[in-house]
Every structure is written in C-alpha cells, then in structure tokens.
Amino acid sequence: MVNHGISPDVVTFSASIDSLCKQQLNYEVEKLVGFMVERGVKPNVITYNALMHGYVLEDRLDEAADLLERIALKGHMPDVRCYSMLINGYCKNGRTSEALHLAEKMMKQGLKPDDIIFRILFKESSNCENPDEVKKIISEMRDGK
Q1: Predicted TM-score (pTM) of this structure
Q2: Domain co-membership, 68 together with 109
Q3: Residues 84, 116: contact at Cβ < 8 Å?
C-alpha cells in the first residue's frame, strides 16, 4: 500500500492489528503499532479493543489492564466491549476480585454493563469461592448503582 502512494488510515491499521492479534502474532502487532504511530495515525477505541483482545487471548492480563489505563490517558473512553474482554479474562484465570473491581469501575464511569458482562459474571458466580460477592455486584449492576 505505502509503496503505491496510498497511506493507510486508522481503519486499515485497526483491521490489520485485529487480524494479527487473533493470530497471536505479538511481534508483528508491536511493529505495526509502532509504524502506525510513526506515520502519525492515532489509535482509536477500535484499535485499542483489538489490542485488548490480543492481550486477553494470551492471558497477558496485566498488560491488558495497563492498556485500559493508557486508553484513558490518551483521551479515549474505553467502551463496554473493552471492559468485558478484560473482565472475562480475569474470570477465566480465577481473578474474580479483579473482575468485580473492574465491573464496579466501569459502572462508576457511567457505562452500563451489557448482556455479555452479565453472562460472564453469572457463570463466574457458580465457579468462584465467593459467589455472594459476585451476586451482589450483579444485583448492583441490574439496579444501575
């Protein structure tokens, strides 16, 4: 593309990053993100969601949590999808308290949980050591607190 005088935009970069993340090609993802920034193309929420998905797929949850913080620092508002991916990753890795903390944080930022988050937490309530805490958060989410 670039060799033919066509400059990729954020949509092109985001689609490529998403594809590479799904294939778990981390080195290529890092190179492409670097190239994107070098070209002056700013990532958007779609780009960040693709990166989040890649981190969660590989159980790189601490890096995913760092990404969530960086998104906000860059002036973007993480969306419900972004939160749901990390909440799901936490639950799948037995990190229930972190999942619940993140769900509370999401609600405090004014985002309403979607059906996916409810399903993740319902499933977690039957698998975790403290189901009452999970049920409490689900109830608060349902009530919009």
Answers
A1: 0.87
A2: no
A3: yes
